[in-house]
Design brief:
Oligomer: single chain
Number of helices: 6
Structural class: mainly alpha
Helix content: 55-70%
Bound molecules: zinc ion
Radius of gyration: 16 Å
Order of helices and strands: HHHHHH
Number of strands: 0
Length: about 160
């Protein structure tokens, strides 16, 4: 899933337990695997240095900057939307804790690419094993499917927990 989808799910999970941001962080972390188990499109890193499946020396090239640009945009969009939606109720910190927890598994993915040793290798094997990637050649369709997923998620959350959203 995109970081934006992970951010919103993580913030939502953590906002259900606002009195305990540490637990919210863990809930955000756990929500990452629930979302990854749902069939989804994903963007793959172009730079081998960021891909645990390929590994590779870190080279400052076009592929790396392109990856960093996409990941930063996705990550900041997710964090911004989560703080905007859940911060309205004064849940800034729980939302932030949930987002960081939800981002951690993907951050560890890149740690494994740079430092391929235990426990990161086992964690990445588990993380990859849970993925339900849909091979989609069109990035546009892939992004649209993620937007639809996020809209459906927020719609369901509004229905289930109207006080939250
Ligand atoms: Zn993931």
């Amino acid at each position: 899933m995109t970081l934006t989808a992970h951010a919103l799910a993580g913030a939502a999970a953590a906002s259900l337990m606002p009195e305990n941001p540490a637990l919210g962080f863990c809930a955000g972390f756990a929500s990452h695997f629930v979302l990854d188990a749902i069939p989804h499109w994903n963007y793959e890193p172009r730079s081998p240095a960021l891909d645990p499946k390929r590994g590779g020396t870190l080279r400052l090239n076009k592929a790396l900057f392109s990856d960093l640009g996409i990941i930063s945009f996705d990550g900041l969009l997710g964090l911004g939307l989560a703080l905007l939606l859940f911060g309205r109720h004064g849940l800034w910190f729980p939302a932030f804790a949930g987002v960081t927890g939800a981002y951690l598994p993907d951050a560890l993915h890149f740690v494994t690419a740079r430092f391929p040793r235990e426990p990161f290798i086992s964690f990445t094997r588990f993380h990859n094993g849970i993925q339900r990637d849909i091979a989609e050649n069109s990035a546009l369709l892939g992004v649209l499917s993620q937007i639809l997923f996020i809209a459906a998620f927020l719609g369901a959350l509004h229905y289930v927990a109207p006080a939250l959203l």
